[in-house]
Amino acid sequence: MDLPSRPTAKAAWPTNPAALMVNLKGQTGRTTAVAFSPDRCLLASGAQDNTGRVWEFGSRKPGERAVLKKDGDPFASVAFSPNSRWLVAGSGALNGTIWVFDVSDKTAQDVITLRGAKGAITALAFSPDNKLIASGGEDHTLRIWEPVAGGTGTPKAVLKNHTSAIKSLAFAASNTEVATASLDKTARLWTLSRIRSTEKAVLPHETEVLSVAYVNSSTLATGSQDKVIRLWDLTSIKPKVKAELLGHTGPVRLLHVTADGKTLVSVGDGPKCFNWDLGTNKVAAEWQLPPVTTTTFAVTIDGRYLAHGTPDGNVDVHRIAEKRA
């Protein structure tokens, strides 16, 4: 099994300053969630001031587009649908509420409310076909929703084998599998079916798992508290680690595979950002980010821009690629 380690020579890869492109102000209190729309026109954020924001990002003058307020609850997580029309937001309150907003215009109307979870919703994702929403949070449970406009929704699947909070999740391109990352030191794979959804595999780690992303149908990437990115071979019944990517000096908070499947973007505490060449599993570039205390990051679908929250409620956007992937 080939487990490549980080080269000892710093000159093995280029280090670049991540240029600050935009500073978005308006929220107060720590920024708790950020997400880019797939079309790269919008950026969403949530903060401890009990509001969410939708920001114009694709225009020449980025700025506030809509303010989201729901029941006085903080927004703990946000995610866009693949068609960029819908924004799903998870409450940071104990009620575990999820809201779906239509962000196709500046009114950002809330159209669906999903109830049933307990505790903060810390991870959300839409399926690639826009039909399903996966949620996870402090109640250790993965829920799969098939939302209907105007309804309160009942989850089509409730999957409960985790023993601690779910921090990240991702759909496979097939729409029939979800991966979850948890503080219980595991990542798990779940098979989705209209008849019965079940756990498919457990991927054990030595420390808490904080981030997860599908590289392709046969490879899953996980990032953990121990600063290591692991690439898992999913072709066997019991997935095995086929590579470890070393370089982060803090917990790995975000993993993102660019749309062309060639680059893995990882962000960890520091904050520190790497672009990994998935053809060689080596660092293509390291990006220097200004020191900031945050665990909230997002990357555009092409891997060109990175957003992070700040303790005072701002959202900073940096360029982390010289050209689009």
CATH architecture: 7 Propeller
Strand order of the largest sheet: 1-26-25-24-23
What gross morphology would you assign?
A: globular
Largest sheet: 5 strands, mixed
Strand content: over 45%
Helix content: under 10%
- Taking all Cα atoms into account, the compactness measure Rg is 18 Å
Order of helices and strands: EEEEEEEEEEEEEEEEEEEEEEEEEEEEE
CATH secondary-structure class? Mainly Beta
CA-CA gap between termini: 29 Å
Mean pLDDT across all amino acids: 91
Which fold does the CATH topology refer to? Methylamine Dehydrogenase, Chain H
Task: Note down, in words, how this protein is organized.
- There is one protein chain.
- This protein is mainly β and 325 residues long.
- The protein has a single domain (10-319), classed as YVTN repeat-like/Quinoprotein amine dehydrogenase (Methylamine Dehydrogenase, Chain H, 7 Propeller), CATH 2.130.10.10.
- It has strands at 15-17, 19-24, 31-36, 42-47, 52-56, 63-68, 75-80, 86-91, 98-102, 109-114, 121-126, 133-137, 142-145, 157-159, 166-171, 177-182, 186-191, 198-204, 209-216, 219-224, 229-233, 240-245, 252-257, 263-268, 272-277, 282-288, 297-299, 305-309, 315-319.
- A hairpin with a 5-residue loop joins β27 (297-299) and β28.
Question: How would you briefly describe this protein structure?
Answer:
The protein is mainly beta. Helices cover 0% and strands 50% of the residues.
List keywords for this structure.
4-stranded antiparallel sheet; 5-stranded mixed sheet; 50% strand
Compile the SSE list and pairings.
Layout: E1 15-17, E2 19-24, E3 31-36, E4 42-47, E5 52-56, E6 63-68, E7 75-80, E8 86-91, E9 98-102, E10 109-114, E11 121-126, E12 133-137, E13 142-145, E14 157-159, E15 166-171, E16 177-182, E17 186-191, E18 198-204, E19 209-216, E20 219-224, E21 229-233, E22 240-245, E23 252-257, E24 263-268, E25 272-277, E26 282-288, E27 297-299, E28 305-309, E29 315-319
